[in-house]
Amino acid sequence: MGMWLRVCAVGDLMPERVTRFDAGDTTYTIVRVADGTYYALEGYCTHERTLLADGLVTGFDLECPAHFGAFDVRTGEAVVPPACIDLRSYPVKVEAGEVFIAVD
How many domains is the chain built from? Predict the structure, then answer.
């Protein structure tokens, strides 16, 4: 596993909202689902590189704002066309009220 990057404080991520997180040249998508669990995925849709931070979360689905394809936030799996290539997902941990993701 790579290094852990601090994303933000727990209170900065609202339930069922998508947050953009940039580290170096890489953009990540951070999602907090309704039950309070956090997930991290690559930041752009695999269909046409649309920024997923503008997407919509419903349950465990993250819908791309451009063509409404969707991904399962738990795994990155493409679940609704036109999305057909899975997103990369990243481990998330919460420590002392802070959210971290593991990156290479």
Answer: 1
